[in-house]
Structure formats: structure tokens, C-alpha cells
UniProtKB/TrEMBL annotation:
InterPro entries assigned: CUB_dom (IPR000859), Sperma_CUB_dom_sf (IPR035914)
Keywords of this entry: Disulfide bond, Repeat
CDD domains named in the record: CUB
Matching SUPFAM superfamilies: Spermadhesin, CUB domain (SSF49854)
Protein name: CUB domain-containing protein
The organism's taxonomic lineage, starting at the top: Eukaryota, Metazoa, Ecdysozoa, Arthropoda, Chelicerata
Species whose genome carries this gene: Rhipicephalus microplus
Domain CUB: from-to ranges: 60-175, 177-285, 289-402, 403-441
Highest taxon listed in the record's lineage: Eukaryota
């Protein structure tokens, strides 16, 4: 008779014998060590087997996403001893962050490094999905803190013996300032409680909108000192395929930025810790077509679905800056299909004077971007009209407030005064006075 036997020494000495022909049902073992034996009391001719195996992690009993916390194992203190064969606790943070686990009470059976009957270890998974295992921990000596390199980690506990109710106590902290946001609205702030990072630091916030939505971001506070080395950069998308929307250092007022894609990324670089470095808020928008932008600077992009517009589409954006300042609009990207009298689609800029439209930029429909536009008062309106589906139509503009004034002199001359100098002017202000003399002068 020929038979094969599989045996396992660690964790329970489980044994099972198989013989005959045919496949065997898969076996799930509560261990990471298995011995397979083949024994025969007759000729081996025509006898054999094929075995495939893989390491399967137990499911997470709980997933923690907080920046710090404390965990006691076992959680149930009602019994003196408890048998926990397999247990895994998972921890998730934004990509680029890392974890540190520390132990303030530790009493497990066994001696490292083998830890045959009971142990805990830290597992971490990199972005390629590869799992790295730290050394087993057991015994009664409190282990050294464990620091990971990944933001996706778990604690794995295996045992074939009862665990004392005091078991072990573990605390964790997230190191790094990266965050991921999926809620429809939210606030972004740095520094904040529960963030541990060294300096100089690079922090990244990634906002994910739902399908069919985009992200509107409002930056209300930014306190950076060294503009050559410190910055807040705002990107559309993530990774290598992202597009830079804005590069900020200091603010004269709120900045509003709208994306055309469903992912918006903020990257903050800071060389020293300061109070109230950055504050911003975001909201997801279902239809990014027009709206009021009341800010000192910002960017606006055309809707992403112009190639699917049925029966025409008209969008109106109103840009409003502080009183005594003028909005300056510059088109960074501009692509339109040329047509006679711009009948297929156009963009124009104007302001309202006693209810009437006063053109600042006539209708434009060409491949070349128009020159910068400066308003007459503190408000400019930008209108986009598309008559039918046009996947080529696209623009991206950037606006900011400038202190520019138009002066029309009388026949004898005149004078122009700055607006409350020096209190009104903010940093990096660009001011000009355009003086127009009467005809013949």
C-alpha cells in the first residue's frame, strides 16, 4: 500500500493522511509551517503527487484609519485566558506616510526568534502589492518600536495556546502629513493635531470626486516665508499624469480653483513649522459650467464634457475681486474651432455698466489665445457658448487682482491718487495708472 501524509509541528500538531487516486480538496491551515511526507512500503513506480500552496492572510477584524491610537489584545477582558488562533488588525493611511508601533505591555509564550507557539509580527504592503514581514515578536520582554516604510500595514497574531487577559498593549502613530479625501465636502489644514512629521516637509492632499464630478478648491490661508523654497502647488490628477493648475506662496485673499478631472492634488513644501500654515476647503461639483469666483486670484477651466453637449451649451463665469482692484484675466490654454462669425462656438469677456454689456474682449474663436484682459471695475464676466458637440473646444484661464486705474485728464491736467497707500497694497502688487489726454493734447 502506498500513502502520503502531511504533518504540521507548529501550532497544534495537525495530521492528515491521503491515499488512492484523484484530487484532494484544498486545506486551510492556521499556521505558516507545513511538512509534507511521502511514505511507501512498495515500489514507487507509478506513484506521485503535485502540491501547490500559497500563504493566505486572515481577513482584517478591524481597519484603523486614525493618525494614532491604542490597541489591547485580547480586547475581551472578561476571561482570564483566551485562545486566539489567527487574528489580523489592519491600518491604512495616505500613500507616502508610514507607521510606528510601540508596546507598553507584552507577555507572550515562547522565546524569539522561533516563537513556535505564539507570536505577533508587523506586515507591510508596498504600492506594487508585495508584502514585507518584520521579525516575530514573543516572550515577556517589551520589543523595540517597529517603524514601517509603507502606509498599508497590519498586525498579525498567531497562537495555539491561550493568551493571558493582559496579553499585549500596542500604540501606533502615523508619520507623515499626506491625506486622502473622498467626502463631498471637506477642510484641509496644516499643521493640525495628530500629525507627526520632520522638517523640511512635503505634504500631499489628494481629493477624489465621484464619477461625473469635479473638485472646486478654495484656499483661504497660506503662511509661507521663503517663496523660492516653500510653495503650495495644486495639480489636476495624480502621479506622472497630473497637470499643474497653480503655484502659490502668499495670498492677498481667497484663491478659488476648479478642476476638470475628478482628482485634485495639493502639494505643500515647508522648511520649518509655523502656526496656521495652510487652510483650504473643497466641494465636489456635478456641473462645472459657470459660477461666481470671488477671490484675489484663481483659475477656471472649461467643462470636460463639451464633446457631448447636445443642442448647445452656455456657461457664464463671474470674476469679482476686492474693491479698488481690477481683475486681470490671462488665458493659459486656448483651443477653439474657427468658424465664420464664431457661429460654432466662442468665448467673450465683458462687464456690466448700468445693465448694459460693455465688451472687454470681443467674441473669440481661434487656435491662438487672446491677449490678457483687464477689467474696468472689480468684476469681469467670461461667457462660453458652444453651438454643438465639439471635443476640441477647451480653455484654461488664470485671474488675479491688480491695482490698475484709468485716468482721463481734462484740458488743464489733473492728479491721480493711490488707494490709501500704504495700507491697501498687498505683497507683490502690480499697479499702473493709464492716463488719457483729450484729443489734440
Amino acid at each position: 500500500m502506498t500513502y502520503c501524509r502531511t504533518g504540521m509541528y507548529s501550532f497544534g500538531n495537525w495530521k492528515k493522511t491521503f491515499c488512492g487516486k484523484g484530487a484532494v480538496e484544498p486545506i486551510l491551515l492556521d499556521t505558516n509551517f507545513v511538512t509534507v511526507l511521502l511514505k511507501s512500503d512498495a515500489s514507487m513506480s507509478g506513484t506521485g503527487f503535485n502540491i501547490s500552496y500559497r500563504f493566505v492572510l486572515p481577513p482584517c477584524v478591524r481597519t484603523y484609519i486614525t493618525g494614532e491610537g491604542h490597541l489591547e489584545i485580547p480586547e475581551d477582558k472578561s476571561r482570564r485566558n483566551m485562545l486566539i488562533r489567527r487574528r489580523r488588525w489592519c491600518f491604512r493611511s495616505a500613500r507616502g506616510n508610514s507607521y510606528q508601533f510601540t508596546f507598553d505591555y507584552f507577555e507572550l509564550i515562547g522565546e524569539p526568534p522561533k516563537c513556535r507557539h505564539m507570536y505577533m509580527k508587523v506586515l507591510e504592503k508596498n504600492e506594487e502589492g508585495q508584502v514585507r514581514s518584520h521579525s516575530r515578536m514573543c516572550g515577556k520582554l517589551i520589543p523595540e518600536p517597529v517603524r514601517t516604510r509603507s502606509s498599508s500595514v497590519s498586525l498579525l497574531f498567531l497562537s495555539d495556546r491561550p493568551l493571558d487577559k493582559n496579553g499585549l498593549h500596542v500604540s501606533w502613530k502615523v508619520f507623515g502629513c499626506n491625506e486622502e479625501h473622498h467626502a463631498t465636502t471637506g477642510k484641509l489644514r496644516f499643521p493640525r493635531e495628530g500629525i507627526y512629521t520632520g522638517f523640511p516637509a512635503t505634504c500631499r492632499w489628494t481629493v477624489y470626486a465621484n464619477s461625473g464630478q469635479t473638485v472646486q478648491l478654495t484656499v483661504t490661508k497660506l503662511n509661507l516665508q521663503r517663496c523660492g523654497l516653500e510653495y503650495l502647488r495644486i495639480f489636476e490628477g495624480e502621479g506622472e499624469r497630473r497637470t499643474l493648475l497653480d503655484d502659490l506662496c502668499r495670498l492677498d485673499g481667497p484663491v478659488v480653483i476648479t478642476s476638470t478631472r475628478r482628482i485634485l492634488t495639493l502639494q505643500l513644501r515647508q522648511h520649518a513649522l509655523r502656526r496656521d500654515t495652510m487652510e483650504a476647503s473643497y466641494q465636489m461639483r456635478a456641473t462645472p459650467c459657470g459660477g461666481l469666483y470671488e477671490a484675489s486670484e484663481g483659475s477656471i477651466v472649461s467643462p470636460a464634457d463639451l464633446g457631448e453637449a447636445e443642442g448647445g451649451l452656455t456657461c457664464l463665469w463671474t470674476i469679482r475681486v476686492k474693491s479698488n482692484y481690477l481683475p486681470r484675466v490671462e488665458f493659459r490654454e486656448f483651443t477653439f474651432s474657427e468658424s465664420e462669425n464664431c457661429s460654432s462656438g466662442y468665448i467673450e469677456a465683458y462687464f456690466l455698466n448700468r445693465g448694459s454689456h460693455m465688451q472687454l474682449m470681443p467674441r473669440r474663436c481661434s487656435a491662438e489665445p487672446p491677449p490678457p484682459v483687464v477689467g474696468i471695475d472689480n468684476e469681469v464676466r467670461v461667457k462660453l457658448h458652444v453651438e454643438h458637440r465639439d471635443s476640441l473646444t477647451h480653455f484654461r484661464l488664470r485671474f488675479r487682482s491688480v491695482c490698475e486705474t484709468m485716468v482721463i485728464a481734462n484740458r488743464t491736467g489733473g492728479a491721480s491718487h493711490s488707494f490709501g497707500f500704504p495700507k491697501l497694497y498687498e505683497h507683490e502688487s502690480e499697479c499702473s495708472w493709464n492716463v488719457y489726454a483729450p484729443k489734440g493734447k
